Amino acid sequence: MRKYSLLVIITAILLFQTGCWNSKDIQTMAYVTAIGMDYEDGKYITYVQVLNFSNVAKSESTQLGKNVPLWIGKGEGVTVTETFNSIYATSQLRVYWGHVKAIVCTERFLSNGQRVKEAYDMLNRYREVRYNVLLYGTKESLRDIFQQKSILNLSPIDSLLDNPSQIYSQRSYITPHYGFKIISEINEAGQSAMLPSIAIDKGAWTEDKQPRTMFRIDGAFYSQDSQFLGWMSEKELEGFRWLQEKLARSPINIPDIKKPVAAIVMIKPKSRILPVIRDGKVYYTIKLKINAYVDEMVENVTTKDMERLAEQVIEDQIRKTYAIGLSKKIDVLQLGERLYRNYPQKWHELNRKTDFKLDANSLDKVEVKVNLQHTGKYKARAH
User: Fold this and answer.
1) Tens digit of each residue's pLDDT (9 = 90 or more) over 302-336
2) Cβ atoms within 10 Å of 244's Cβ, excluding its own
3) Which family is it part of (predicted)?
């Protein structure tokens, strides 16, 4: 009986102990929320933005506007893995990667497609890093990017870097890009990969009289088949937004001049790209249907006139973006991807002859149909 009691006591002790052997206190871990990738003098350079979630957890005692401290770690090495191990050497705490929300790559890093592939290979092999991570390029210093605070001194995870969807829902220009999307674009024949470019705006905001910097998306970097193609500004890309079906809300002036007659908001575009082969040459037609509503009316114009003016503005923007992309040998409108889908044999034939298959005559027709749904609380003349 005594032996049986002793066995029960020992078993109970072991059961209670095994539940704690691998436990870790969440407040004593370094949570990486963003990763920066750079390359200089033959070495990879990795930056990490680290937060202690006890500082940003939402509770009744949370003080709105309280400054949230940011920690930035740096590692160097001849491989990406070596840079991470370099960070471990000085981190003091166990580093956890499961909360990474964004990866930012410098222009210098993006200029070599092989480096980009190697970095993606390492990050995607590591099980803690997820596929739904936002990817950006930048011309800024990575330290400046990771030191940037959000408005009202909210947590950095409430900034454009980690949460761009809120801004995109009010002003849709360049769609946020996630890791799984970039991987598909890199591996897809006939398609160029686009990385939104994040920058720091230094003139738009002040806190009282003190200037405060804020994030903004100022353009996008492009690459294809491991080759860096270049960068285009947001203004140069304004025609590309109309082919994004996730576009939530994007305003235009009609006509697009210094003295417009109205400002209208475009929503819910539906587009089709139709390649046609004539005399051995490929021509493309873009058909676009898009809804709209009036945001501001400067002059009293009819709904039909506003629709006609909006159609012309959108067509002009699409053609302008195409022409700029053409000068940089970037297929901004992803016309080649549609050719690959519809006529793969023709795509392979052209691909054997030249790397870039577009010219000034390739974009044939741009057919835009605008449906003005309403004019707000004020009515406009129908005709």
Assistant:
1) 999 999 999 999 999 999 999 999 999 999 999 99
2) 16
3) Belongs to the GerABKC lipoprotein family.
